[in-house]
Amino acid sequence: MTKTWTLLTNLNSVAGPTLMLLYPLYASICAIESTTKVDDEQWLAYWILYSFITLMEMVSEPVLTWIPIWYHIKLAFVAWLVLPQFRGASFIYERFVREQIRKYGLRLGKDEAHPHTT
């Protein structure tokens, strides 16, 4: 059982960075090089949400240290955001983030006049 536990612990140490950083990095590069916009939106949305999660973790670190399964919850949530079967990042962005931007009247991207461009 000790060898199995060691293997699972090491697998967990590799799964997090691979799922949260390496795969999204690779997929983002592929998205930039592709001609479709759909994958660009997925990966931009992922990085926005991942940044938000990271900032929230920094602020709430004292509380999160008391939740022993926090890392596993985060890993499962990020898997849902990242995996192409789910496209969770696009879903969250379209349903919640975009709604808040519209609600509070933030003018971003194409909606905003760019005074510095000719």
Automatic annotation (TrEMBL):
> Transmembrane segments in this chain: where?
14-32, 44-69
Membrane topology qualifier: Multi-pass membrane protein
Tell me where in or outside the cell this protein is found.
Membrane
Q: Which domain of life is it from?
A: Eukaryota
Mention any Pfam family matching this sequence: TB2_DP1_HVA22
Task: Alphabetically list the UniProt keywords.
Answer: Membrane, Transmembrane, Transmembrane helix
Query: Carries keyword Transmembrane?
Result: yes
Give the range the annotation lists for the signal sequence.
Answer: none
Sorted alphabetically, the Gene Ontology cellular component annotations on this record are:
membrane
Transmembrane is among the record's keywords: yes
Query: Chief location of this protein?
Result: membrane
Family, per entry: Belongs to the DP1 family.
Q: Which PANTHER family match?
A: HVA22-LIKE PROTEIN E (PTHR12300:SF139), HVA22-LIKE PROTEINS (PTHR12300)
Q: What is this protein called?
A: HVA22-like protein
Q: What is the lineage of its organism?
A: Eukaryota, Viridiplantae, Streptophyta, Embryophyta, Tracheophyta
